[in-house]
Amino acid sequence: MDNLLKNDNYNLDHAVAGATSGFVTRFLCQPFDVVKIRFQLQVEPIANHHVSKYRSLLQAFYIIFKEEGIFAFWKGHVPAQLLSIVYGTSQFYSYNILMNGSYNFSLLNEWKYTTKFIAGAGAGFIAIIVSFPFDTIRTRLVAQSSNHQIYKGIFHSCRCIIQYESPKTFFHGLLPTLLQVAPHTGLQFAFYAFFTDTYKNYYNKTDTSINNSIISGSVAGLLAKTVVYPFDLSRKRLQVQGFKNGRNGFGTFFECKGFVDCLKLVIKNEGLTGLFKGLTPSQLKAVMTTALHFTIYEQSLVALRKLRLHISE
Question: H or E element: which one contains 61?
Fold first, then answer.
């Protein structure tokens, strides 16, 4: 990726590659996201407990499939795809711009992985602000029961939120999301760069191969997600505030007054482990998505460069 960043002057390529990566990754990994969100929004303990709807990863998959059908795993998929495409485009485009700017400062070049962390955090910050309304819509569509639907689709949900709540609702949970996404994205890029370099040094390679991208992306995704996970849980809980009617049948509805209050209430009522509800499907998803995200991005850039060379000839 370093050679591509230094030599590729076509910023549009990075935007297109990021959009392609976001689209494919989202489609393949959406079921894990649905299960993760259901776990995150469940107040009852995730264990063999008679009051809990979802008690394990496999049981949650089975219950959702049994009660709602196979397509339930792609609930909210349209806004999720819009989220992924917008986010992927913004993220990789911004990262490319920030990294190109850093090459003008020799000191930053000496702190290679720190620079990548800062550039990744900045790219994540920009991307999440641009794409956040799609995330709120997606969360609400996934959160609602199939037997008690409040929203009929993406446009209906937008209209209802604006009419009955407020446009500010689209940005509920933005603070914990920024606190999560900025370091998360920074860690992803820094870890990915470190592990790809380690792989290339070990095998004496100069280019980033598909195997390198998959392995490095998997490890980077796992580590980064685990570090910032409590912020992800609080974001989901904040995004469903004011949506109590849509949560009928899922157990106790979690109510809070803001980010700090959310964390306090989770720890008070559910313990420290409550901050990591849904971590397992989230880790599985992170391993898959990060590996796919970087691999598809890298290969898309290669394909676009070859296409440009072919056209120029």
Answer: helix 57-68
- 253: CB partners within 8 A, 6+ apart: 43, 244, 247
In whole angstroms, give the CA distance from residue 41 to residue 43.
Answer: 6
Please tell me whether residue 126 adopts helix, strand or coil conformation: helix
Amino acid 1: pLDDT: 56
Q: What is residue 253's DSSP assignment? A: P
Report the sign of the C-alpha dihedral through residues 295, 301, 304, 309, in that order.
negative
Q: Which of 22, 57, 38 is nearest to 290 (CA)?
A: 22
Helix, strand, coil percentages in the chain from 3-state DSSP, rounded to 5: 80, 0, 20
- Residues contacting 129, CB < 8 A, separation 6+: 174, 178
Specify the pTM: 0.74
Backbone dihedral region for residue 47 (phi beyond 0: left; psi -120 to 50: alpha; all else: beta): beta
CA dist 27 and 167 (Å) reads 28
Pull the structure tokens for residue 280. 């397992």
Q: What's the token pair of residue 277? A: 């509800």
Tens-place pLDDT, residues 182-232: 899 999 999 999 999 999 999 888 888 899 999 999 999 999 999 889 888
58 is written with which tokens? 């496999």
Tokens of 179: 């606190």
Q: Distance between CA atoms of 285 and 25, rounded to whole angstroms?
A: 10
* Identity of residue 4: L
Residue 267 and residue 274 in contact, taking contact as beta carbons nearer than 8 Å: yes
Q: Which two tokens stand for residue 285?
A: 């998803």
Quick: pLDDT tens for 90-144: 999 999 999 888 877 776 677 889 999 999 999 999 999 999 888 888 888 877 7
303, 20 Cβ separation under 8 angstroms? no
Two tokens, residue 27: 């489609």
40 vs 238: CA distance, rounded Å: 11
Is the separation of the CB atoms in 19 and 297 below 8 Å?
Answer: no
